[in-house]
Amino acid sequence: MISTKQIKSSFYSRPRKERGRCTVHILMRLEIAQPLILLMVYFLQVFLVGKDFGALVVYLVAVLHPTKVSGVVTRGIPFLRPGPNAVQSHMCPKGFYVTRWKEPGRAEADFGRFDVKTVIKNIYILFSSSEVPAATRDDEEIMDLVDPSTPLPPWLSEEDLAAYASLYENSGFRYPLQVPYRTMQTDLGIPDPKVTAPSLLIMGEKDYVLKFPGMEDYMRSGQVKHFVPNLDIVFLEEGNHFIQEMLPQQVNELIVKFLNNHMN
């Protein structure tokens, strides 16, 4: 089983100059997927697990290499068709965090006012909420939405925070902002993408993503199964966007059960 979190953690911990540069936006998405594709050369079949925008990567690999993928498990984000309507930002508030972070330089300036650890802490606090992060004024930035006195979520330790922050000390935030926020609406030229492998999506009932325009209906009505026909969706009542850290035992049990059901 290959996790995109492992790939991304290894990737982002490297200094910028060691990563190379992609001049084509499509390649920037595929650059993260490339380690998964290379690993599949050595395995007849793989199960892929992705969280948040890592889900977009494993879905893309499953679309492009269906015979290699035995199953897909994602958390926090359903399949989103690559292209301009991946996230309907135009239907969100003007200060929607995705819109703000798509703007070159704006998030970098916002984050640059704080040390790396504080930025990561603020992101965890913001995205643990059931509300979509959005600024209400033009002169208000996303980091300004967090009260500095707000404590860490009870399931996130200071040790965890320090470990996550260390991944970005060398890399900075430029590439994580470029992929996915500034590339996810690029049309990849796949007219009718399909994930044919058995798939499991784990969502928290309190995940703010459910409040994206049309997102909850897209999942609950079954529209998502046009793209992922063999999909099961499990909603965990108390879960938020960081469901795997908040409810690790429940998430792990669901993943293990899925693997047991679909291993040959």
Automatic annotation (TrEMBL):
- TM ranges are 36-62
> Could you tell me which SUPFAM superfamilies the record lists for this protein?
alpha/beta-Hydrolases
Print the keywords alphabetically: Hydrolase, Membrane, Transmembrane, Transmembrane helix
Q: What's the superkingdom here?
A: Eukaryota
Task: State a single Gene Ontology molecular function.
Answer: hydrolase activity
**What family does this chain come from, according to its entry?**
Belongs to the AB hydrolase superfamily. Epoxide hydrolase family.
Q: What is this protein called?
A: Epoxide hydrolase
Q: Which organism is it from?
A: Erythroxylum novogranatense
